[in-house]
Amino acid sequence: HHVELALAARIATDIDQQRRMEALREALDLPEVPARIECFDVSHTMGERAVASCVVFDRRAMQSGEYRRFNVAPAHAGDDYAALREALSRRCARIAVGEFPAPDLLLIDGGRGQVAVAAEVLAEHGLQDVRLVGIAKGPERRPGEEDLVFPEREAVLNLPADHPGLHLLQQIRDEAHRFAIQGHRARR
């Protein structure tokens, strides 16, 4: 009986994710529903070691077996932009040779500066067709007030706090944070 319940719960989650993905497609004006989303997050332990984390959402669920951590060169430790550039360059080089599929959407935890760096790296690797969006905490740093930042436009997008598309981005970003913090514990 609990097998049936578990299955019903999984189908419900699946339908929920489908709805979130569709809402996201609409909000970001994407040609189709993004099946594969990667999110990069750079974090620090007391500014000395930067670790960049990449988490993958695919087939309507987080794919923890595909997560990656990038221990960034010590010279870049205190520099978020350089750390992001290094990690993303390594990832894009491997996507470019076909080692990993290119994501339909690349989510960067950060604002305009991070998004500009990511856009440059994508272009350098011939991946400029990958859609890119930054997710930045709003001025009050309250969840639900995130600014969505795009490389090609000045205006940020603020989705309503109850927007299913925003929930999907938050879920993926939170997972990237969690994975990043876990990485620090492992390195200390």
Describe the structure.
This protein has 188 residues and is an alpha+beta fold. Strand 2 (49-58) and strand 3 form a beta hairpin. The radius of gyration is 17 Å and the shape is globular. Helix 2 runs parallel beside helix 3 (112-124). Strands 1, 2, 3, 4, 5, 6, 7 and 8 form an eight-stranded mixed sheet that branches. It is built from four helices and eight strands.
Defining traits:
188 residues; 4 helices; alpha+beta; eight-stranded mixed sheet; globular
SS summary, helix count:
4
User: In one word, what is the shape?
Assistant: globular
End-to-end distance, in Å? Answer: 45 Å
Class computed from helices, strands and strand pairing: alpha+beta
Mean pLDDT: 87
Q: Could you tell me the radius of gyration in angstroms? A: 17 Å
Unreliable sequence segments: none
What order do the SSEs take from the amino end to the carboxyl end, as H and E? HEEEEHEHEEEH
Sheet-strand content, in percent, reads 15-25%
* Portion in helices: 40-55%
SS elements, strand count: 8
Major sheet characteristics? 8 strands, mixed
Describe the SSE topology.
Blueprint: H1 2-28, E1 37-45, E2 49-58, E3 61-62, E4 68-71, H2 80-96, E5 105-109, H3 112-124, E6 131-136, E7 147-150, E8 153-157, H4 164-187
Parallel strand pairs: 1-5, 5-6
Antiparallel strand pairs: 1-2, 2-3, 2-4, 6-7, 7-8
Helix pairs in contact: 1-4, 2-3
